Model the fold of this input.
Amino acid sequence: MSFSPAQCRAARGLIDMSQTQLAEAAGVSSRTVLDFEAGKRQPIKATLAAMQRALEEAGVEFTNGGQAGVRVADKKKRRR
Done:
């Protein structure tokens, strides 16, 4: 599944996570998150995976039915 800038922004919004908090949780720079969400650059796959994993561990579930989306994960699926 691809991970888009819009999904990243939406996911952070669902759980009230700042760009700085995401960067810290994913082990990347704040500029990486900022530039990705603004569509200024596409990070390498490992960086995208770390960002997505950090959001998932914070309680977000990425969906990919007919359209890509995000939602708050079922508490049983949360890793925190």
Notes: The first helix runs from residue 5 to 15.
